Amino acid sequence: EDTPLLAGIDKPPRKLSSRLKTFANVFIAIVGAGVLGLPYTFMRTGWVASLFMVFFVAALTYHGMMLLVATRRKIQDSPACSFHNIASFGDLGFAVCGSIGRFAVDFMVLLSQAGFCVGYLIFIGNTLGNLSAPNPNPKIWGVSAKAVYIWSCFPFQLGLNAIPSLTLLAPLSIFADALDLGAMGVVMIEDLFIFLKRTPSVEAFGTVSTFFYGLGVAVYSFEGIGMVLPLESEMKDRSKFGKILAITMSFIAAMFGGFGALGYFAYGDNTKEIITANMGTGLLSTLVQLGLCINLFFTLPLMMNPVYEVCERRFRSGRYSIWMRWMLVLIVVLVALFVPSFADFLSLVGSSTCCVLGFVLPALFHYLTFKDEMNLKQATADVSVIVLGLSLGVSGTWYSLLEIFSVKV
């Protein structure tokens, strides 16, 4: 209820975001570790095909985000609406489809967020392993260096993930984002200098299987669909949200395209699955890679928070449970130990969960909400996005699994 309990006493006004702050918040919500796998994806898929994929996925993700915004506005503006506070993707799923809608969103959010965290640990383990022993299969005391570093993170992550409040984690988020942007800038500058010195041969297009593989990585890179409704709610002038979101997505797509292309143009067929591994072992390279590892180390508890919210709400009636959190951290660590490839795992998560979250569910919720007033063209557009999202998800998941298991054989 929004009515004050005591007459004459109003709630303190909520501070809303300006256009610039909304731009920054959307940028931070979307840009993550997936960008580090883009140069390798450009190598596998071809630079022309990859640029097409990046801008295509950006446009489709923007479309899905705006469908969520339009659906919430329609429901809340309806005179018969009983949902006056749709604050999240899960709330919207419940308003449109009841418990089934909330379960579908919760399940996909749980898989995708946990998948992001698995990718973070794989990156940390592989990067620190390569820094400590730069050879194909680095070992420490006879044990895989990747496993040693991932297990080294485990006790510290138990402590960080025991923190119950996102407010307390906010300084870590700001610190991590600053490291991420700084490291990306350094990598792009170094790629540019290397490209100007030499011009390795590059391919414009790959095969059909690599196309779907790369599509999964591109979808993963545009993470953040779950944040669009809270960010729109916090904007001072909501009528401008669509324009600001379009500008931000265009900027991010151009940055991702430039980052992926520069990395591939600099190293050609020698581009590694984590682009920082191409930078050698100098002081600058080491600092950049350590900075990215620190960034992901402190970002992991933030990305796990939606997982805790879903599990504690469903199994603990919303009550904080440290044992459940620690068990989930252990599961994430164990999965990270058995997945060999960072880029392959990005593709799997992007195809299997992010396609459903970013494309299928927004179009489905929009269709169910507006179906009584849609014309044939509008209905066809929503159904087409649903079919396209499912097709891309199934194809990308299949090819990603083939890649993962082919590495193990």
From TrEMBL:
Membrane topology category: Multi-pass membrane protein
Entry GO CC: vacuolar membrane
Places the protein is found: Membrane
Membrane spanning residue stretches: 23-42, 48-70, 107-128, 148-171, 211-232, 244-267, 287-308, 320-339, 345-368, 380-401
A Pfam cross-reference name: Aa_trans
Start and end residues of each Amino acid transporter transmembrane domain: 17-400
Main location: membrane
Keyword annotations from UniProtKB, A to Z: Amino-acid transport, Membrane, Transmembrane, Transmembrane helix, Transport
GO molecular function, one term: neutral L-amino acid transmembrane transporter activity
Protein name, as recorded: Amino acid transporter transmembrane domain-containing protein
Organism per entry: Genlisea aurea
